[in-house]
Amino acid sequence: MGQQYVYTVDNNLYINLTNRCSNRCEFCVRYYDKPIYGDLWIKDEPTAEQVIDILEREYDISDYGEVVFCGYGEPTYKFDEIIKICDYVHSKGGRTRINTNGQGSQINGRDISGEMSKNMDTINVSLNATDKVKYDAICHSDYGLEAFDIMLDFARNCVKAGGNVVLSVVDCIGQEEIAKARKIAEEIGAKLRVRELL
Ligand code: SF4
User: Residue 168 C-alpha to ligand 1 middle, in angstroms?
Assistant: First the structure.
């Protein structure tokens, strides 16, 4: 178990703030036998100041396409830290993205969609499935069958608040499911990203 709070993939910088998650997705990279991006299990969650200090000392934000909040967990458990880090990245002219399971408002006990939309350049919400039963069967959320609607309401609220929202699914769900996912994305005014399963 280490302290890898910042890592790079291709031309992007990734921020790993927490290992907590309200889901236990069957395809999650956390459960792979072999780590893909290094050891992202962390002993202590970092403060925003610790992450900003690492970025300041070790990276030139302008060298990277995006700063992405991702890692082995759901980043919105650290929402206050996210906002501070976004401020820093934007002050350096960088762009920000979050990969989230969309349950952040429930996790924080308040609607965070407005603040998220104001501070994040791209909000990538994992749709994963096209209805609540299928979602629950794959994601095993702490919020049970309510999780799908919680996630979709969050995405919809972010769109309404002016956020650039992308719903994502993995390509292995099949063409019929992908078509349904595209319709869901269109209905709420979001884009759809079909990503390759790692
Ligand atoms: S929401 Fe993300 S971090 Fe959490 S279990 Fe699913 S894939 Fe893993």
Answer: 13
